[in-house]
Structure prediction request, 313 residues.
Amino acid sequence: MDDLDVRVYREVFHSRTGPPLESDVRKSYRSVARKLRIDEVTIRNRVKKLQQSGFVKGWRLIVNPSLLGVKLAQLWFDVRPPSAKDDLIRKLVLMHGALAISDYHGSSLTFILMYESEISAKKEFELIARMSDGESLVRTNIPFPGCAIELTLTDWRIIKAIQTDPRRSYSVISGEVGTSTKTVRRRLERLIEERAVFVIPSLNPKALDGATIADLVVFYANPESKTGVDNRIVSQFDSLLIRAELGDIEHGFFNLIIRNIFKAKEILAWVKEQPGVGRAFVELVQDRIEVYESFNEPVDKKLAEASMSIRAS
Prediction:
């Protein structure tokens, strides 16, 4: 994965410094080509290359958590003993609301969880702490932009139709939803504009040839230092950065593509020297387990509620 692959991946799948995911689920390769000042054929070939290599297994649509009445949190923790990681991962995958697990080199894991209330979240976190037997558990919230629009039954049907393939043709979606292609296009454009939906790529870190994903997590010394720290990190590691999650006031999360483990040490040393950094750590991803099907349940619930509301009226 070279520097151009990094730039293409970042532009197609992620909002570089805004929300944690790309909200334009129908982003055209033409617009990406204009942004990167590269021809469209090259963009298509690069995306195809990322898929054929197995690194990008696919992508799916998710709904803004605020519309589902849920929130997302990410946990970092050590597993003791490290040999118990595989068994713990099997248990975490089965937890209600599990979304993704990154298995790091060494004894660490990170776990992304969807939850409905802080009470239920605390119970889940306490359970994970006991199961992992680790000394520390770091939690951060994954912020999404506010979204106050009310979705109709047609909206939920469109969302359901493209959950596993956001780039399905308008004609196929309209046939499945039972409405015109014009309506599908208009409704989907509104969902994108209001940031009601996002696209999330499915990744296989093992498919990277000669490279590794490094997760950089930075906690700010104070809220006032956030912008400056973020800007310096994004600028310094532009050629390595595939994603920056910067919506939280207390921390920043950066996915980097590095060619060797020594680079990770250099990155961490540089970051720790930056004014405004409270603490930081880097973890190397060796595997990723995704349970994005967990998003199906709340979407199905909203779809059923919208259907009942129509029948009742």
About this structure: The first strand starts at residue 56 and ends at 63.
